[in-house]
User: Fold these one by one.
Assistant:
Number 1:
Amino acid sequence: MKILLLGDYSNLHWTLAEGLRKLGHQVCVVSDGDFWKSYKRDINVKRESYTKLGGIKFMLKILSLLPRFRGYDIVQIINPIFFDVKADKNLFIYKYLRKHNKKIFMGANGADYYWIKTCLDGKTFRYCDFNIFGKERDTPYNRKEIKDWIGSDKEKLNKYIANDCDGITCCLYEYYASYINKFPGKTFFAPLPINKESINIEKMELLKKGEVKRESNKINFFIGISRERTTVKGTDIMEKALDRLHQRYPDKCNILKAVSVAFEEYKKMLDGSDVILDQIYSYTPAMNALLGMSKGLIAVSGGEPENYEIINETDIFPIINVLPEEDDIYNKLETLVLNPDSIDRLSMESIEYVLTHHNNIDVAERYLEIWKNSQ
């Protein structure tokens, strides 16, 4: 098939494209690299300026590219806002894509109207980015997202595309739960893809044989930090818990902090770590946690029962599931530090988990199944 993937978050589309190409399909990824992360893409649509003139130049660039976005069997957009322009312009581009291609799918892979609305209902999730145990989580970022998506042009765009498209693909349980009741016939779950070639299968086999020797008795904790977005995924709370842990057990743990680094550098910094701390408001591990797990790191992230149920996992539970509370995070980190013998088992299970559920070849086949069988 000829497949066009528009936009990218967390390297999802590029990693998916690698899997699809391995299966013999022709794929084009068009994105801006997701800002500083600078993910790979076939066609770069990074916006250089947010001035009025910069906006005109960027839109002219997109318009000049539109003829190249025709004649595809499948078009998938990463989000209702798939290009870095306003909702009305994304709607214009969507309608063009709809007219000139066979099937079009919308990704539910990040903030949008339906997810935020579901988060705010205080019922669907016990906790989430916008609501913790029934109490709304009021932050500047959340206020901005609510203003952007509720009662806005983005809401209208999201509703239009969700109703019009051939299917909705969801990469996390939370996004799936936000759409399945409203669009039961066209909502599908497809796990986040991790490049199969990057999964450390050799380490997993050595761990199974007990042949991996740790270089130090200290546990090495890794946390990625974007200083401008520390409250978004709970990095601020995780960092406090980590610092407390290090103060109490300086002889038992090390902390490596990656502050606003590009994706390729981020991947290199993971090597040598034992534990990765990722987001805390999610029921499910996202891409950074899965990337760490593929290397044998233990993820401190979302690992609620709903996560394991949606992927039909009943045997291995390698994620250190934490609540969005500093004390809960600290207590679970302390348990790891005081029980270093559990590290090898959890490391082995982490690799096995990613290989089983997230390798990009199997995920690509899941997408192909969705695309072929929908409507």
Number 2:
Amino acid sequence: MIVKAKRGKMKSINLILLLLLGLSFSVTLNAQDSTAAQAYRDQDYKKSIELYEELVLQALNEKKESAQLYYNLGNAYFRDNQIGKAILNYERALLLNPGDSDIRHNLRFAQSRIEDRIETAGSLFLTNWFHAVRDLNHSNGWANLGVVLFILLLIAIGTFLFVRILWIRKFSFYTGLVLIVLILLANVFAFDQKKERIHRNYAIVMTGAARVSAAPNENSNTLFELHEGTKVRIRNTDGNWYEIEIANGSVGWTSKDNVEVI
């Protein structure tokens, strides 16, 4: 009995310590966030960048990646005229919270400042529709919605099985069919967004002029140049080289030093 009591007491103490550590981290994060925000308001953008970079690193170490921190860091970089890094952080924020209109607005504004103007290759209507609807919410939001819809489906099934009124049974039946389709869509959207977050196969050009070659070596012919802030898709990797594709479908190889993965 005494041993059990001690174990229970130790578990309680450990739980309290964990809660206190979490609270301490949260308080420290909030305090530093306030300091970084104040530096931004004081137009000391370099100090704000330094503080927000530390906050982002802390959040990553704690596995608490934050769209808000990336967004604030992007704003600080933009004000400091570091357009490539601003776009990089806006894109990272958008990856975590694709439905945020402020992030989208600031990203578009920053993209209007880059040198490259690349025509986007045509894509299927269904593909555009899929991404437009998917990006109305983030992966956790779609997953939570899927759970709510599943509960409603169970209610609809229960109503269909146990209620004898004909019109209610019909309504429950067709409602259930619609809910099944919505559940499938919610899960597909959540899975697709999570896959994008995990694989991270897009990058931003971080140098003033990035050479894109026909093959992954320095002696290969130059196909074209890309400039700071341009978004590329990573198709393949070979040593210190990425095979990239730009919005118009053109493909080539560039050094990993020229880009940073979103």
Number 3:
Amino acid sequence: MSEINSTNTNTPENNKNRNSKIVYYVLIAIAAALLIVSIIMLCIKFFGGKEDFGDYKNPISSTSSTSSITLPQNPINFDEIKAVNPDVCAWIKIPGIDVIDYPILQSSIEADDNYYLDHDINGTVKKAGSIYIQKLNYSDFTDPNTLIYGHNMLNGTMFGQLKKFKNKDFFDQHRQIFIYTPDYILEYEIISAFVYDNRHILNSFNFNIENECQEFFDECVNPTSFTKQVLEGATLTTSDNIITLSTCTSNDNERYLVVGKLISRTRTAK
């Protein structure tokens, strides 16, 4: 029998050690490959070319149009005034006519549409009444035409000063009407002031039907009345929103109208 070579490495124990080393090196290689791939992906994400940055949106700049804009404060404290009367839906102010600076009311569902024709903000019967809109109009002034009513008081209160717009110089120098609601500041440009008949405008025209709406709008920019002032070049289409201030005259068959075209709607801070 020949002698066993003591240097023979092909033993079960040596084979086991060799296999373990192979597995170890394979795992190391896999781990190294995964690490390299991860590093490459991170580099692409954070140091990519223009194509990558083209799809990236700065979270601050992308929301700056809403979250970073400071909304204007509403000059009217509606919480306070609605505590006096919840029927207050807006406020009207005409710069240059200090006396026209009033709350606008809209009667409740249970009350008559013209309740505020002869009631003040406290519900007291008064000849002067209040400035008000009817329930045919939305209280947020989103209708194509919102009619605002007020008495032509001889002492100049309520809508008694609207007659000043009969004067061309006054008409030319006073172009703005502001309507404040609980959520918005609405700015209107006065485009015309004229005598009209005494028909109920909201019952006579369906402003949700284009041709009827345009019919009244055409009258506003080209009144048939002899007593009129119109902004040169003024136009109105059915995509516009207007307010029509209406007051009586010395003739029961007439009404004097001042028409304003909405030019801006600005949300206010809560």
